[in-house]
Design a protein that fits this description.
Elements (H helix, E strand, L loop, with lengths): L24 H12 L2 H6 L8 E6 L5 E7 L7 E3 L4 E8 L1 E7 L10 E3 L5 E7 L3 E4 L5 E4 L7 E8 L5 E7 L2 E8 L6
Antiparallel strand pairs: 1-2, 2-10, 3-11, 4-8, 4-10, 5-7, 5-9, 6-12, 11-12
């Protein structure tokens, strides 16, 4: 059957869908905790002794979520998640989060000298999670010399970018910006 050359005009435009409420950091944390307790899913992640592995998950309310495997001695390096809120929960092993207890300017700088006493360190054993807001600068590490760690991460809105930093003592330097095409 051939397609008509023109279609009749609709009687009235369909109403726009109501915008969904933003997913909160608390909701992201609840999601990561729930997923981290799914032993079958956690066991399904292939682990590589040489590098991190990951599986993309469907997060709540259109959020971006990941199941990540961490070989002994690996980490993310210093970074932030731009305008996204986030949460992560350790599902297996132990992770360490080093973060800054200050909100940094999101743009307009290449290098900052950090004031004393901004560093925070958290140890997150299996079942322990952490939520954070926009522009949260941190690094996550598996400091174990012999045990893999596995964690669940979620971000809303989905990550528009990740800014990567280097750190020497109190000096934090913006090194590069990654876009979703770089990690998907």
């Amino acid at each position: 059957m051939s397609a008509p050359t023109h279609a009749p005009a609709p009687a009235a435009p369909a109403p726009a869908p109501a915008p969904s409420a933003p997913v909160t950091a608390a909701e992201l944390l609840a999601f990561t905790r729930r997923v981290a307790s799914d032993a079958e899913l956690i066991a399904s992640l292939p682990l590589d002794p040489e590098g991190r592995t990951w599986i993309r998950l469907d997060g709540p309310g259109g959020s971006e979520a990941w199941l990540i495997g961490w070989p002994p001695g690996t980490g993310t390096g210093w970074h932030d998640h731009a305008e996204s809120r986030g949460a992560f929960t350790t599902a297996r092993g132990r992770l360490t989060e080093r973060s800054l207890a200050a909100r940094l300017p999101s743009e307009g700088w290449q290098s900052l000298e950090l004031a004393p006493d901004l560093d925070r360190t958290r140890s997150l054993d299996a079942g322990t999670g952490r939520a954070f807001g926009e522009h949260h600068v941190h690094e996550v590490l598996n400091e174990s010399p012999s045990e893999h760690a596995v964690s669940v991460h979620a971000y809303h809105p989905p990550l528009p970018l990740i800014r990567r930093y280097s750190r020497t003592g109190p000096v934090l330097r913006l090194e590069h910006v990654e876009r979703p095409a770089d990690w998907q």
